[in-house]
């Protein structure tokens, strides 16, 4: 079963938020490589959200 665009967007936002939390945890522990990993993941997920919104604007 395919997820709706709204559900996909909410799921990606939740994953990005969690990555941000993990980023803060890693930064607080002084683990720079792990913090960089979660920062990249967070931005990649946010780019997916933006792309999904753009698709919705052009198709909706």
Account of the 3D structure:
The chain has 60 residues and is mainly alpha-helical. The chain has one domain. The chain is 87% helix and 0% strand. The protein contains two helices and no strands. Helix 1 runs antiparallel to helix 2. The longest helix has 28 residues, at 32-59. The chain is elongated.
Q: How many strands appear in the DSSP assignment? A: 0
Total helical segments: 2
Shape, per Cα inertia axes = elongated
Oligomeric form of this entry? single chain
The level of helicity is over 70%
Q: Percent of residues in beta strands?
A: under 5%
Counted up, domains total 1
Main beta sheet = none
SSE arrangement, N to C: HH
Whole-number average pLDDT?
A: 93
Q: Span from first to last CA? A: 21 Å
Rg, Å, rounded: 14 Å
- Low-pLDDT ranges: none
| SS class | mainly alpha
Write the layout of secondary structure elements.
Elements: H1 5-28, H2 32-59
Give a short synopsis of this structure.
The protein is an all-alpha fold and 60 residues long.
Descriptive terms for the model:
single chain, 60 residues, 2 helices
